[in-house]
């Protein structure tokens, strides 16, 4: 943990904004937030929780209000409660690749954390470049606007450009917009009500 903290401190946003943000994320034990995603499949609103080394809980608000998904890295399985959370009735045990627990855009629960997102951005950066634009304000929070764009004809998971808005203080993403090779918007994700290293209830990720 000390090594991660030192890396986070030594990597400046001016040198490499994506690496700096990823170092901050990797130094966290967990976080929770409200995720609002808009794309061709409509809008998804999820209360999202993450704890190292990969525990994920999703409480769905839209479109399947009341559904709960929990992924546990110790079992490699996703527990799904379509009509109520844990304790209401036994959940379905599914693989992360199962279509029932993948988003409308094919995202997997076990690959849904912010660290994975930033690693995808970093992979795209390796085939292009990153630009740090002028600081701005997003939802009354000071933010750094970063653009990562691939070389012509290159893409990662169909994405050829990312626009990221990183919190000025924590470098945690507040908004991420992705574009395809044609320059058309692929997906827009807002990360709201972010809590870093929260105290989760003991049974929060329990099956």
UniProtKB/TrEMBL annotation:
Keywords: Protein transport, Signal, Transport. Gene3D superfamilies: Lipoprotein localisation LolA/LolB/LppX. It comes from the Bacteria. The keyword Signal applies. Monomer. This is DUF1571 domain-containing protein. It comes from Billgrantia bachuensis.
